[in-house]
TrEMBL record:
GO terms for molecular function: cystathionine gamma-lyase activity; homocysteine desulfhydrase activity; methionine gamma-lyase activity; pyridoxal phosphate binding. Its cofactor is pyridoxal 5'-phosphate. One of its GO terms (biological process) is transsulfuration. The keyword Plastid does not apply. GO terms for cellular component: cytoplasm. It comes from Streptomyces showdoensis. It catalyses: L-methionine + H2O = methanethiol + 2-oxobutanoate + NH4(+); L-homocysteine + H2O = 2-oxobutanoate + hydrogen sulfide + NH4(+) + H(+). Keywords: Pyridoxal phosphate. This is homocysteine desulfhydrase. Its EC number is 4.4.1.2.
Length: 407
């Protein structure tokens, strides 16, 4: 069925009352009661038995897992407490000292940090490749210790789109397990398992939940045997999804394709207009002609996504001033929610880096990252134009509702 249909008709459990709820019930219980010792013991055998204890499985969490597996075209999924829970969980479940990982150079900061930590403390070697060239990956992957290839569908903040079809096919040929972080594309724009990935990981905090009100993560597996292998390790780690977090994520999923169309349409308009300005020296958006990943993006993605970054001619000072002047967009980390957010890495997340170190990280001193939301595009453009002109605008929402709550 069409993705629009699959997203709306999320998986639901049977409900024996002659009718059933349209929304997935929230089963907010840590444990489940049994009437016989043998039944309780039998339920502890694996990931798919009766529910025993919510770290091992929960009906609301399982509904999310089945929904995500359905959207990504996987055989099964495991939901986690956060995207980093999913990524760390998969890495710790699959790797042992002496193993080697081949990873894309431009990686999410948290993934880079966990790989660096595994390398330092557990003797796991990490080899970085561009993500654009199959031959470069093949050269790195022929070593017998290589276990895992780590890629991202759309990298942040460069907008690089890895050559997934080429790299995933090469990994299959060489017997290397592949893991693709699909958080920025979401299954609405790309389904890496259809392109040959073994594991897709998500920060469901981002587009899948979509409303900036929940943290969550997931790993989706092409082959159910791999899920069964990873599952016991994740139960040990305890980074499991909470039922309410899973419920909120399920609450977001039916509108994912709809939201994603709007994110993509808004971002494409803003990218095009920003590229035409003289005070903007570069725009990084994969759907924009001239981006290094343009051809790959058109092949791999169904749209350019909602993440956009651009370099201001005025450098560090201009970037800092811009993020403080916008009013419709908010100054915040994270991405993928309905509201537009901006950050300026050189004066926030990367402020310890000097000009040289910033350049090595591929981040210009005047680079602004924008997670484009689903507001009216002319309001977003007006906000950007005013902030670039050095004017502040009007805050459309503010925090009036918070003062109601807090008195
Ligand atoms: C946010 C993010 C993560 C981490 O997810 P959390 O839910 O914050 O733990 C991982 N990968 C990508 C690409 C992200 O954007």
């Amino acid at each position: 069925m069409d993705l629009n249909t699959r997203a709306v008709h999320v998986v639901n459990q049977p409900f024996d009352h002659g009718s059933w709820p349209l929304s997935v019930p929230l089963v907010q219980s840590s444990a489940f009661a049994f009437s016989s010792a043998d039944e309780l013991a039998g339920a502890m055998a694996g990931p798919d038995g009766r529910y025993v204890y919510s770290r091992r499985g929960n009906p609301t969490v399982r509904a999310l897992e089945q929904t995500l597996a359905g959207l990504e075209g996987g055989a099964g999924a495991i939901a986690f407490a956060s995207g980093m829970g999913a990524i760390s969980g998969v890495l710790l479940a699959l790797l042992k000292p002496g193993d080697r990982v081949v990873a894309q150079r431009c990686l999410y900061g948290g993934t880079f940090a966990v790989l660096s930590d595994l390398a330092r403390r557990y003797g796991i070697e990490v080899v970085y490749v561009s993500g654009d060239e199959v031959a470069e990956f093949e050269e790195a992957a022929v070593h017998p210790a290589v276990r895992l290839l780590v890629l991202e569908t759309i990298a942040n903040p460069t907008g690089q789109v890895a050559d997934l079809p080429g790299l995933l096919a090469a990994a299959r040929r060489l017997g290397v397990t592949s893991m693709v972080d699909n958080s920025l594309a979401s299954p609405a724009l790309c389904r890496p398992i259809e392109l040959g990935a073994d594991i897709v990981v998500h920060s469901t905090t981002k587009y899948l939940s979509g409303h900036s009100d929940v943290l969550g993560g997931a790993a989706v597996f092409a082959d159910d045997a791999l899920r069964r292998k990873v599952w016991p390790r994740t139960v040990e780690l305890g980074a499991c999804a909470d039922p309410f977090a899973a419920w909120l994520t399920l609450r977001g999923i039916p509108t994912l394709p709809l939201r994603m169309r709007e994110h993509c349409a808004n971002a494409a308009v803003l990218a095009e207009r920003l590229a035409g300005r003289s005070d903007v020296t570069a725009v990084h958006y994969p759907w924009l002609a001239g981006h290094p990943s343009y051809a790959t993006a058109r092949k791999v993605l169904a749209g350019g996504g909602g993440l956009l970054s651009f370099e201001l001619a005025g450098g560090r000072e201009a970037g800092r001033a811009f993020i403080e002047r916008v009013r419709v967009a908010k100054l915040a980390l994270s991405l993928g929610g309905v509201e537009s957010l901006v950050t300026h890495p050189a004066s926030t997340s990367h402020r310890e880096l000097d000009a040289e170190a910033l350049e090595a990280a591929g981040i210009g001193a005047g680079l602004v990252r924008m997670s484009v939301g689903i507001e009216g595009v002319e309001d977003l453009w007006g906000d950007i134009e005013r902030a670039l002109a050095g004017e502040g605008g009007e805050d459309p929402g503010g925090w009036g509702h918070l003062s109601l709550l807090l008195g």
